[in-house]
């Protein structure tokens, strides 16, 4: 009897480009600057990306350019969440301390603040032109292209 093996990875298509952005500004301000300089129309989605059952959530902005068949996404890579710290129950006073925990959407790139994901059906997006325009924005420290095939947690970028 012949054994047939079906690989699920064969159905997933990596037809997107990924740009990493380092900057210290808020997500809505970055979306405004990208809309202004790259002539986009990014809008915040009503629901954030939630991972690990509300442990971490990441803001996401999206624009579907139907005339050029390109979908643009701006997603935050950093989620800072305040949680109660662990302390012994044998203390005299019941003081709760809060600690700030940091989570990352793509843990391999902990220093990256945001990612731009460009999904396209046709290969008509010029990455070098986009990177040149991003480098001209004074609030952005640096930006560069990332190869999605070398990311271990690329499943987090499926949205």
Largest β sheet strand count, sense and barrel closure = 6 strands, antiparallel
Mean pLDDT: 85
Specify Rg, calculated over alpha carbons. Answer: 19 Å
Number of helices: 2
Number of distinct beta strands: 10
Q: Estimate the global geometry from the Cα principal axes.
A: globular
Distance between the ends: 39 Å
Largest sheet, spatial ordering of strands: 2-5-6-9-1-10
Strand content: 35-45%
**Fraction in helix:** 10-25%
Low-confidence stretches: none
Number of domains: 1
Query: Would you list the SSEs in sequence order as H and E?
Result: EHEEEEEEEEHE
Which structural class should the secondary elements be placed in?
mainly beta
Protein name: IPExxxVDY family protein
InterPro entries: IPExxxVDY_fam
Characterise the protein shown here.
The protein is mostly beta strands and 159 residues long. The chain has one domain. 13% of the residues lie in helices and 36% in strands. The chain has 2 helices and 10 strands. The strands form 3 sheets. It has a 6-stranded antiparallel β-sheet with strand order 2-5-6-9-1-10, with helices on one face. Strands 3-4 form a two-stranded antiparallel sheet. β5 and β6 form a beta hairpin. The model has no long low-confidence stretch (mean pLDDT 85).
